[in-house]
Design goal:
By secondary structure, the protein is mostly helical. The chain contains 18 helices and no strands. The longest helix has 53 residues. Pfam families: MFS_1. It is a multi-pass membrane protein.
Length: 442
Amino acid sequence: MHAQSVAPQGIADEAKTSPLQVLTLVLCFLVVAADGFDVASVGYVAPLLKSAWSLTPAQLGPIFGAGLFGLTVGSFLFGPLADRIGRKRVIVISLILFGLGSLACAYAPSAGWLVALRFLTGAGLGGAMPNSITLSSEFSPPRGRAMRVTLMFCGFTLGLAGGGAVASLLLPTFGWQGVFVFGGVFPLLLAPVIWLWLPESIRFMAGKPRYAKEARRTIERLTGDANTPIDSLAPEDARREDAQQSVIGTLFSTRYRTGTLLLWIAFFCTLWVYYQVSSWLPTVITSAGIDASHAARVGAMLPLGGTLGSLVNARLMDRMNPFFVLSGSYAIAAVSIALIGVAIGEPFLVYVTVFMAGFGLSGAQTGANVLVAGFYTTAARATGVSWALGVGRIGSIIGSMTGGVLLATFHSLPAAFALFAAPVVIAGLAMLANGWVYRSRA
């Protein structure tokens, strides 16, 4: 079963691409770009923080981890809230919270304060990305949905990469505080733009009297005809299911229970390995006698490969069973990651293996974000996306902490990287099983 066919169909699916749909994708692109910049900001300022406060690497660790922990908490909190008050409102709340949090980070007097503020900033961030994915999916027609949502999600990569350029301009003049100030001002300026111009999900508003006027305005912006029956936007079976089950109950209902657990396994394993590899690869490369600048170029192959892999997967997911497409992507990732340990001493091969690891692993994660956004019914969709990412972020915390332990335990790099690849195999099998289960139901 294609992930898109699980969700109720609506007017946004049936209409030709409208300016409102394009605007929605562009605004969500900017939201995840702000998200990407904030996630990467600590990495840009870490050397200056280390010097200014005389921090050891061990003391820097909690500053990095606090943001990830906050993201995890925020994902679990903001998902159900978005299914209660709407995707757009939670995105605005999230922008304001992490904007204020980032500004506060610029005035942190000590490392302890910065850890606390990074946690609060991360918690605010937890609602931005999942709801941008959800809203983009709900405003994209089935044909080309995976590609459109993937292009929107490229804003996150842009935020990560473009943040480096912004930081290089700010650091010499404004120091590390300038990076946090920029990371706070941008989302705060974006929040009123989102409130004024980003539409709320029509599927979310359908059947809710308090959103009737807003739904009419959105329908008119989408089609030019405000008289389209709102009830036609949510099929009867979806409305009945939404009314009878709680949001969390839907995720674990007979219809979704198997898919939920298998998706969580895939998200957990994917982000575990991605953060494990991305966090420790530069150390492995430099320990092999390769200079730091060369190690940075090798590390850049991971997101570069991921961008290409995301676009290829999106194209295939629009044409084939998306679960099976992602299973193939995981297979590429597992083989490539295992080969990194063998290729470390060969400059050309290490470029290729790291690029292909990003192609398979990061490409699969972006595809999984798109897939889960179309998997659940409207009433539980934001929670489904947010909680899947929340489970994945637990994996990211574990991955960033365990990589060094595994490298120290296994004196052989080929053995260590083969073990790094093992969770990717589990993720691929989970996707394969999900594809088989939902294909058989169709």
